[in-house]
UniProtKB/TrEMBL annotation, chain A:
Protein name per the record: tRNA-specific adenosine deaminase-like protein 3
InterPro entries found in the cross-reference section: CMP_dCMP_dom, Cytidine_deaminase-like
Cellular component terms (Gene Ontology): cytoplasm; nucleus
Domain of life: Eukaryota
UniProt record similarity statement: Belongs to the cytidine and deoxycytidylate deaminase family. ADAT3 subfamily.
Cited SUPFAM superfamilies: Cytidine deaminase-like
Span of domain CMP/dCMP-type deaminase: 176-338
Known cofactor(s): Zn(2+)
From TrEMBL, chain B:
Species annotation: Ictalurus punctatus
Protein family: Belongs to the cytidine and deoxycytidylate deaminase family. ADAT2 subfamily.
Cross-referenced Pfam families: dCMP_cyt_deam_1
Record-given protein name: tRNA-specific adenosine deaminase 2
UniProt GO cellular component terms: cytoplasm; nucleus
Length: 353, 218
């Protein structure tokens, strides 16, 4: 299925069924973890007319600092309840539990336990009950849905993330393009394997033109640090008039200077951006058969890559497996990472030694 | 207790544990690393310099070459490691065996990329000047040096803090200048995440902070 046929470029990517793989975003831990919950007390609002006053008074006594995402009042889940609204009284950690409460845990906390301030007006507030509320704002739709089962929160939806998690971020045309680039990476990996290298291949693309800027494969038999990604980064440097190493012995490792038209200021959208010369990997995409290691992942941060697509995970991988360097908060550049591209073809390449 | 034996390997490695270099060794090699950093500064590169020393022989000497090569991974350590590999290849020696007995002396904590590269080559010890709060791979951002990465070579030890203030001052000097090698900030801002972490080497807001932030990595 994957014979090296460089001249059949038009057919490239067509032999492999694009429906056989799914691309998924590699999100930060805080976006992919389960929603953490805090113990709190809520109470029914027995007199609806008191609602706004109660909310105001409660937020003075128990302001729920750092929980701006929490909606203080919710519609009662149980439609048969005589009280349609419920309000959060306080967090369990906001109040010191009376000793009787500790010794008799079966006795529910009373409003006076929770609202010790003498002048609090309890009018319209029913007996408190325990609830669990989301500790921070949900960042994804699955987190929002999970959080909402406990207590309503605000949610600023990132539509791209939602589509990404559903595997619907890319159109079938975009997916065909992704497959075309990954096919080139797989072919490069095979060329490398024929030279006795680890079967890992990588491609760097300028998405503005669709042009492949660099193709590289593992060269660790020549140089222990020449992973496919490091090779590609250096080939991009060559394309920009720099570069360190020579690759003459490895014909599958190649580069093309990026389309000068695109940067000449004559393009139709001749904004100021277009007039800028390419700068390292700014705005570029990387396609690599397996998840980059720590060295390569950080090299991509230094090189300002814009997105990374990989086929299969690596045991010490740094874009999802061991670290998520692409969304490491302390770093000054972040990028999108997608995994699962042509997973099977990538897995079938010889595993790393 | 060092003697002037020719068989240095025996002295450096005791029971498989790397022998720590003496104060005078550290001073001598670090002073040379600082000279490399000055050279980088004079050539418009981020002032970081390093030495790789194997049994009292300097096998590699590097300084940042990012702007010259347009390759953001050409950090001092990578440049010096290439010289070690070259040295090994001339003598038909296994680079990892040589690196196992090699100490890196560097003015700034190695970044995450370099820390992983040092692991991949089995370098056991790194002596450095100041911390690298933005990119450091020996604890400042991530602890790659001692991380649990069984497929990424061997972990290494660090001796931090040698002439740290001087190393920071050099970085500050660099960051106060505008880096002419970076692209139009307009384009970059789009690709950059909201302001990266602060850096200790950057206590005062430089006039071209964005350019500075770009340049640090390189």
């Amino acid at each position: 299925m994957f014979k090296m046929e460089p001249e059949t470029k038009k057919r490239k990517g067509m032999e492999y069924d694009p429906d056989s793989w799914h691309v998924l975003p590699v999100l930060s831990d805080e976006m992919s973890d389960d929603v953490k919950l805090l113990d709190a007390y809520a109470a029914p609002i027995t007199d609806k007319r008191q609602t706004s006053r109660l909310v105001k008074d409660l937020s003075v006594v128990h302001p729920l600092a750092d929980l701006h995402h929490i909606k203080r009042v919710r519609a009662c889940k149980d439609k048969s309840s005589p009280h349609p609204l419920e309000v959060i009284v306080c967090l369990v950690s906001d109040v010191s539990v009376p000793t009787t409460f500790v010794t008799q845990p079966q006795r529910p906390a009373s409003l006076t336990d929770l609202l010790s301030s003498k002048d609090f007006n309890f009018e319209g507030l029913g007996e408190p009950f325990p609830v669990r509320i989301p500790a921070r704002a949900p960042l994804t739709r699955p987190q929002f849905e999970q959080a909402s089962r406990h207590w309503p929160t605000s949610f600023h939806e990132d539509k791209r993330v939602t589509l990404g998690l559903k595997g619907q971020l890319f159109t079938s045309r975009q997916k065909a393009k992704i497959q075309e680039y990954m096919t080139t990476a797989v072919e490069a990996a095979r060329s490398g394997r024929e030279e006795g290298m680890d079967a890992v291949g990588a491609v760097i693309v300028d998405p503005k033109s669709g042009q492949i800027i660099a193709v590289g494969h593992d060269l660790t038999q020549d140089h222990p640090l020449h992973h496919a990604v490091m090779v590609c980064i250096d080939l991009v440097a060559w394309a920009q008039g720099g570069g360190v190493y020579t690759y003459e012995k490895h014909p599958a490792c190649r580069y093309t200077a990026s389309d000068p038209q695109l940067y000449a200021g004559h393009s139709e959208t001749s904004g100021s951006e277009e007039n800028v010369q390419p700068y390292i990997c700014t705005g570029y995409e990387l396609y690599v058969t397996r998840e980059p290691c720590v060295m390569c992942a950080m090299a991509l941060v230094h090189s300002r890559i814009s997105s990374v697509f990989y086929g299969t995970a690596s045991p010490d991988g740094a874009l999802g497996t061991k670290y998520k360097i692409h969304c490491q908060k302390e770093l000054n550049h972040h990028f999108d990472v997608y995994k699962g591209v042509m997973r099977q073809a990538c897995e079938e390449l010889t595993p790393l030694k | 207790m060092r003697t002037d034996h020719t068989d240095h390997t025996e002295i450096h490695v005791i029971n498989g544990i790397f022998h720590q270099p003496s104060d005078s060794e550290v001073q001598r090699w670090m002073s040379s690393a600082f000279n490399m950093a000055i050279d980088a500064l004079e050539n418009g590169e981020v002032p970081v310099g390093c030495l790789l020393v194997y049994n009292d022989i300097v096998l590699g000497k590097g300084r940042n070459e990012v702007n010259e090569t347009k390759n953001a991974t050409r950090h001092a350590e990578m440049v010096a490691l290439d010289q070690v590999l070259e040295w090994c290849s001339h003598r038909d020696l296994d680079p990892k065996e040589v690196c196992k007995h090699t100490v890196l002396y560097v003015t700034v904590e190695p970044c995450i990329t370099c820390a992983a590269a040092l692991r991949l080559l089995n370098v056991p010890l790194v002596v450095y000047g100041c911390k690298n709060e933005r990119f450091g791979g020996c604890g400042s951002v991530l602890d790659i040096s001692s991380g649990d990465l069984p497929h990424t070579g061997t972990s290494f030890k660090c001796i931090p803090g040698h002439r740290a203030e001087e190393a920071v001052d050099m970085l500050k000097t660099f960051y106060k200048q505008e880096n002419p090698n970076v692209a139009n900030p307009k384009v970059r801002k789009e690709c950059m995440s909201p302001a990266g972490g602060t850096i200790t080497t950057h206590t005062e807001a430089a006039p071209h902070e964005d350019d500075v932030k770009m340049a640090v990595s390189d």
